[in-house]
Amino acid sequence: MTRETGEAVPGVRRRMPHAQRREQLLRVALGEFGRRGYHLTQMEHVAAAAQVSKALLYQHFASKEELFAAVTDSVVTDLTGRLNATVPARGGSGEGIRAMVRVLFDYATEEPDAWALVIRHLDKPEVGLGLRELRELRDRLGTAFADLLLRRRRADPALSPAALAVNERRARLLVPLMYGSMLSMVSWWLEHPDTERASAEQMAYEFIWLGLDRLRSGERLPPPGAED
Fold first, then answer.
1. Does the pLDDT value for residue 213 go beyond 90?
2. For the segment 74-95, what is each residue's pLDDT rounded down to a tens digit?
3. How far apart are alpha carbons 117 and 107 in whole angstroms?
4. How far is the C-alpha of 158 from the C-alpha of 156, rounded, in Å?
5. Does the N terminus or the C terminus of the chain have fewer Cβ atoms within 10 A?
6. What PROSITE patterns does this protein's entry cite (predicted)?
7. What radius of gyration, in Å, describes the C-alpha atoms of the chain?
8. Are the C-beta atoms of 146 and 175 separated by less than 8 Å?
């Protein structure tokens, strides 16, 4: 740009402000990590996709591990923020589960690169520094699910501390089944666009809610060998 008019000079590339450049690099890196996975993504891939030099990329992120950590932290903050803003603080557990299902479908639709990153790396301990952020996402999802499961129990004055402790242990066992089934259902739906979203959401909700309802009522299957 000229000092006199402030107009762009042909052939001169305008320097992007530091914060804006960092956000651009994070967006590009999210797409690369989502498509390729952590191990197959190299810094040169990100630099080429962002149309910058590797030297400039390293000015913002000292290593691939640091870049991945920053990307996953952004994903965790965004998704958990949506969950916290959408899932009702009060109301029945069913209402909360339905809201969580809707948030996950929205997120997968609106942020396909972020969803791909979560699905690829959520339970991969070899990832590196970003593992901390992804474990945080898993833990936050687990806490949210457990709170939904225990909301009514914790509000029941007739429930003894010992009985509540039993419910807490059961909730911890159910949590990975809940979020695992939700993530799998959303991913399946993305691969089958001919399936109506409303039908997929309802199936995910019913699968979780009806199963939980039977468990809450005390129904159990006998352990292996007990039927013989």
1. no
2. 988 888 888 888 876 655 667 8
3. 12
4. 5
5. C
6. HTH_TETR_2 (PS50977)
7. 23
8. yes
